[in-house]
Amino acid sequence: MSLCIGVSLAAACGFRVFVPLLVMALGSKAGLVSMGDGFEWMSSWPAVVGFSVAGAMEVGAYYVPWIDHALDTVATPAAVIAGTLATASQVDHMHPMMTWATGLIAGGGAAGLTQIATVSTRGASTIISGGTLSPIVTPVMATLQAIVAILLSVLAVVVPIVAGMLLLGVLSVALVLVIRHWNRGGERRALA
């Protein structure tokens, strides 16, 4: 169950880096989630405040066209790190090497996959419209991504099994988007 919570939170980190960490910290404060040994700091009040401020700034920044693309440069590695932390914090009673390996492979991988899918989708919409639709598309995508991040995070904390099933759907869609993006890039290079 804890792996399901951790990987679901990690996948949500691919949509918004700090929102899942905030939900996890609040879930720990409410007694819904237990933090692994050495990760208790993630549910401290200073961490809750930090995740709240960072989450609000991140969500707000994605509503500004062009800044959202620049933010993806930083958010992509940050999502992998946050996903690794979220998963590792939930996988307890393992050798530390296994905890971090599980966190990196399962959590970092899930976060990276969802982040790459969101970046690819945003990039494709900019390329297709030549950037002219960015003022319209950017707020819509930002809202949808924030909603998915919040929904998946809350489900991971409250109903981990449902979050796990939703996660499979999200990761399947993300994988399809990433494969399509890479295939189109290969087709363009072949034509050139």
The helicity comes to: over 70%
Q: Which structural class best describes the helix and strand composition?
A: mainly alpha
Uncertain parts:
none
Radius of gyration: 17 Å
State the end-to-end CA separation: 49 Å
- Please, how many domains? 1
Count all strands and give the number. Answer: 0
The helix/strand order is HHHHHHH
Q: What gross morphology would you assign?
A: globular
Largest sheet: none
Structure description:
This protein is an all-alpha fold and 192 residues long. It has one domain (2-191). The chain is 81% helix and 0% strand. Helix 1 (2-13) packs antiparallel against helix 6 (134-158), helix 2 runs antiparallel to helix 3 and helix 6 (134-158) runs antiparallel to helix 7. The longest helix has 34 residues, at 96-129. The mean pLDDT is 87.
